[in-house]
Amino acid sequence: MIRTGYAEFEVTVTKPAPSESEIQKEIEKHCDGVRQLLAKQTDEKSRSHLETVLQKIPGVVRARSTGTRRSRIKVLFDGNDVTFGKRRFEVTSYDPAANGWEQPQIGLRRGLTKEGGDNVLWDAGASMATVTKDSVGIPVEFQAFGRMEGTPSKLATAALLNGSDSERFHFPPEGVAAFQAQAAKLAAGGNMTPLELAGEAEYDGGAMAFVVQSRLKTASGSRRLQRYWIDPSRGYVCPLIELYDNNHGNLVAEWKSNGYFLHEKSGLWFPAKYSYTEYVDGKNIREQRTYEVDRKTLQVNQAVSDEEFGFIRRKRRVT
Question: What is the pLDDT of residue 214?
Fold first, then answer.
């Protein structure tokens, strides 16, 4: 179980580059906004500044219209459930127009409830902080890299490990029985099929994984095939997870990991590289997110002080 952690990684998001007409539309949208400000401005210095901005807009928009975004992320968390866990993160984005990294955005998230969490977002570029009850965060949590995601798998893991010897990965009989009963109930409802063994596969330099699969019934009535590669020798990591449109057999999405390394202090395996890809018609990429983890900074299940999740630090009184 991953309870606390800290990681630094770089994210690259790739989409098909926009067409010339889409770029022109974006240029016109930005230019119209500046023209409206220019029409109301009477101060000559301000007008001169806006006119310079207006001239630069086409070049800036074109430089940023590559279909690729890069960010550097640092994240610290205590508690691996967003409903009560704490997060501190820092996101620094790369601006291709300026050929450099922007000022970071720093955020704190202290749980998500119906009433909202105690959250803060700090934008260093604008020198402005926002206190909000709304969710602030990053698109993915690094403890999910190379592992099954989602609430059902978290609940299943928690249920099986309750009262078990986690170091030996020994499940209590009553936990196994309860999990099997719940799985049978779900299968009887017709919304999903039990996991079935589909064979074995080699990955990541000769490592072997069991391939299991199940089918889920969607809201429209169609079924989707989910396929998992599971490696027991590396702590039951999932180097590959695939989602298929079972009506046409097209690949819809995949979660892929490689370059696994053993984090010695925690005894857990992590991938040096992790990617999530969405497909159109099983071939063309709609979007791909690639994460490269800095293994030197990785910390897992180490004590985290609550002071790490606050902006205001009390100064020690000198007597």
Answer: 84
